[in-house]
Amino acid sequence: MAKERKKTRISSKVDELPPEIKQQVDIMLTDTSNSYWNISDWLKAKGYEISKSSVGRYALRSNSATQRLLEAQSRTEALVNVVKKNPDADYTEAGMMLMMDGLINRLATAEEEFDYLPLDKVGRLIASLSRTKVYKDRVKQDMKDKADLAFKEMEGEIMKTIKSDPELAAKLKEILTRAKEMMLSDD
């Protein structure tokens, strides 16, 4: 049986720089007028032999991490705004959508990580989310069916009681229909 390779944390020469030098490299990377050559030359002048390729790989990793953080922050802010605007809404759907989005993004951007990504676990998470969605939809449909049955029974009883006044019966039926539509709407 082959030995399973363990995923190790990436560490580059830039990561090993003193904090103040690394911070300066990060600042230089945010300025698009600085090329990787310029940063490499600046580091060499400071006594650190780091190639332009190493600077470039570090920039790609740090930009990717920053982008993921910004996207997560944006999604969280959007969810918080939805919660503020709709305090009575069902947030399980939004939470499941965020989780599914994260899983799909992880699969889509895994590239060389596929060798180490436990796909069976990701598959189980996706299946679990799908089961949760099916269960939620089933509960919602059951509630609609029960509400429909209750309104029909209530309508029948009320109609028996007010049969003597057809105009009142028509108005009441209209009110019940509107109430049922409001209760069963997805809003």
Question: Could you give a short description of this structure?
Answer:
With 187 residues, the chain is an all-alpha fold.
- Assign the structural class, choosing from mainly alpha, mainly beta, alpha/beta, alpha+beta, or little secondary structure: mainly alpha
Q: Helical segment tally?
A: 6
- Beta-strand level of the residues, as a percent range? under 5%
In angstroms, what is the radius of gyration? 30 Å
Shape: elongated
Mean pLDDT: 78
Element pattern in H and E: HHHHHH
Number of strands: 0
Main sheet overview: none
In the predicted model, the low-confidence regions spanning at least 5 consecutive residues are none
Pfam family, one: Phage_Mu_Gp27
InterPro entries: Phage_Mu_Gp27
Protein name: DUF3486 family protein
Can you give a write-up of this model?
With 187 residues, this protein is mainly α. It has a domain at 12-67. It is built from six helices and no strands. It starts with 18 loop residues before the first helix and ends with a helix. The relative contact order is 0.05. The mean pLDDT is 78. This is DUF3486 family protein. InterPro entries: Phage_Mu_Gp27. It comes from Hungatella hominis.
SSE diagram, text form:
Elements (H helix, E strand, L loop, with lengths): L18 H12 L5 H10 L6 H34 L6 H17 L10 H43 L4 H19 L3
Descriptive terms for the model:
187 residues; mainly alpha; 6 helices; 72% helix
